[in-house]
């Protein structure tokens, strides 16, 4: 059951980040999931780098961290294109 929750969590974070970065029309559901999960890893790393806690579970704080990480990921991908 845990893996399904993380997929839903990644999809939600990736979808919100793609709406903020205006890349939602270019991405499908699968790419939103990947962006959200990788964004959670990047966001957790960035928060740990700045001395804060990263993703701690399925809660609002972790969702915000994942969204921030996904936005960073989408910005880097956009800059490289």
Sequence stretches where pLDDT stays below 50 over 5 or more residues: none
Tell me about the biggest sheet?
none
Number of helices: 3
Which of globular, elongated, flat, extended, rod-shaped describes the shape? globular
Distance between the termini: 37 Å
How many structural domains are formed by the residues?
Answer: 1
Please write the string of helix (H) and strand (E) elements: HHH
Mean pLDDT across residues: 86
Rg, Å, rounded: 12 Å
Oligomer: single chain
Structural class: mainly alpha
Beta strand count:
0
Estimate the helix proportion, in percent. over 70%
> What share of the residues does DSSP label as strand, in percent?
under 5%
Describe the structure.
The protein is mainly alpha-helical and 81 residues long. It has one domain. The chain contains three helices and no strands. The protein has helices at residues 2-20, 29-49, 60-80. The longest helix has 21 residues, at 29-49. It is globular. The termini are far apart.
What secondary-structure arrangement, pairings included, does this model have?
Layout: H1 2-20, H2 29-49, H3 60-80
Helix pairs in contact: 1-2, 1-3, 2-3
Summary of the model, kept short:
The chain has helices at residues 2-20, 29-49, 60-80. With 81 residues, the chain is mostly helical. The protein is globular.
Which tags fit this structure?
single chain, 81 residues, mainly alpha, 3 helices
């Amino acid at each position: 059951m845990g893996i399904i929750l993380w997929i839903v969590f990644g999809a939600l974070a990736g979808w919100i980040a793609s709406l903020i970065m205006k890349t939602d029309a270019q991405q499908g559901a699968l790419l939103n999931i990947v962006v959200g999960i990788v964004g959670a890893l990047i966001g957790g790393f960035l928060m740990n780098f700045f001395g804060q806690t990263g993703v701690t579970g399925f809660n609002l704080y972790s969702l915000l961290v994942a969204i921030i990480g996904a936005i960073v990921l989408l910005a880097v991908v956009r800059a490289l294109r």
